[in-house]
Design goal:
The termini are close together. The protein is mainly α and 71 residues long. The chain contains 4 helices and no strands.
Length: 71
């Protein structure tokens, strides 16, 4: 197993973190102060039932890992 395929599931939370920090900086908010701009909150706002948020995020992480293994 390649190192990248082992680390691939971490891509989802890492990209979520980067996205949230960048948005906070762009709009002039402190990046260390919490808000509801994380992927979890965005999925809920889009209408995804709360019970499906974790499985959807896990499926995305699994898909990223599968793609890393294929490549």
């Amino acid at each position: 197993m390649q190192l990248w395929s082992a680390l691939a599931p971490l891509a989802v939370p890492a990209l979520d973190f980067a996205q949230v920090v960048l948005v906070r900086l762009v709009i002039g908010h402190a990046p260390w102060k919490g808000d509801r701009r994380h992927l979890t909150h965005l999925l809920l706002l889009a209408g995804l039932p709360r019970a499906l948020v974790a499985p959807v995020l896990a499926a995305i992480a699994g898909g990223v890992a599968w793609l890393a293994l294929e490549g």
